[in-house]
């Protein structure tokens, strides 16, 4: 399920050249970032493990005779008179085993990601994109015209985050065409071509609203950043 970044040096060079070309007609600065995944989702694994433990306790409460009979057969058919303390100890052991087993199973990243609800995945990707933008692009240009194209492979999710000068003039829905062009290429397995298509579309929009001045300088790196 999870996709790994598979880019050659030639791909990275093509993306950088596409960014450079897109910036040739605008004062805007485009930053491209790609990552394997935007979050570890360990908290989601903890929640599922807790749910499994609770369900085990519920099952024990609903059908105690069945589970106690299983234990009796496991120890050779000797019937025990269970005291309240022993019952609570058994319940604690069952819950702990269920929690631990589920946690170990969810160490497998693809399953952990698959069990993470899509709204949570989308929110984590957006949060990571915003964090990367704040670190690498926000307010780092003279006219505050930086924009980030962020791609998270495992979540199959992309984000475009723009600095305040851009958001003040360009409606966020305008970037939908760039996103569609990128996703169409990535869906065909062409990750580099997807980033190139997005950079080209973003460059067209930026050139319309922020044309390049004669004394404009390149303020942010054109290379593809992998995190």
UniProtKB/TrEMBL annotation:
Chain ranges passing through the membrane: 45-67, 87-108
Pfam families listed in its UniProt record: TPM_phosphatase
Keywords of this entry: Membrane, Transmembrane, Transmembrane helix
Domain TPM, chain residue ranges per copy: 142-203
InterPro entries: TPM_dom
Protein name (Swiss-Prot/TrEMBL): TPM domain-containing protein
UniProt source species: Novosphingobium aquae
């Amino acid at each position: 399920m999870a996709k790994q970044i598979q880019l050659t040096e030639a791909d990275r060079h093509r993306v950088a050249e596409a960014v450079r070309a897109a910036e040739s007609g605008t004062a805007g600065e485009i930053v491209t970032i790609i990552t394997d995944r935007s979050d570890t989702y360990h908290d989601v694994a903890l929640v599922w493990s807790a749910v499994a433990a609770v369900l085990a306790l519920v099952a024990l409460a609903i059908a105690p005779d069945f589970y106690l009979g299983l234990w009796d057969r496991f120890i050779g058919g000797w019937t025990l008179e269970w005291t309240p303390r022993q019952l609570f100890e058994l319940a604690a052991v069952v819950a702990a085993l269920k929690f631990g087993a589920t946690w170990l199973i969810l160490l497998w990243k693809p399953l952990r990601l698959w069990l993470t609800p899509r709204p949570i995945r989308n929110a984590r990707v957006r949060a990571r994109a915003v964090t990367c933008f704040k670190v690498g692009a926000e307010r780092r240009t003279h006219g505050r015209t930086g924009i980030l194209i962020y791609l998270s492979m495992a979540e199959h999710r992309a984000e475009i985050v723009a600095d305040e000068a851009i958001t003040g003039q360009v409606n966020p829905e305008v970037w939908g065409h760039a996103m569609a062009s990128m996703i169409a290429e990535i869906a065909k397995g062409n990750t580099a071509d997807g980033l190139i298509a997005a950079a080209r579309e973003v460059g067209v929009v930026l050139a319309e609203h922020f044309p390049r001045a004669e004394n404009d300088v390149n303020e942010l790196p054109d290379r593809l950043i992998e995190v």
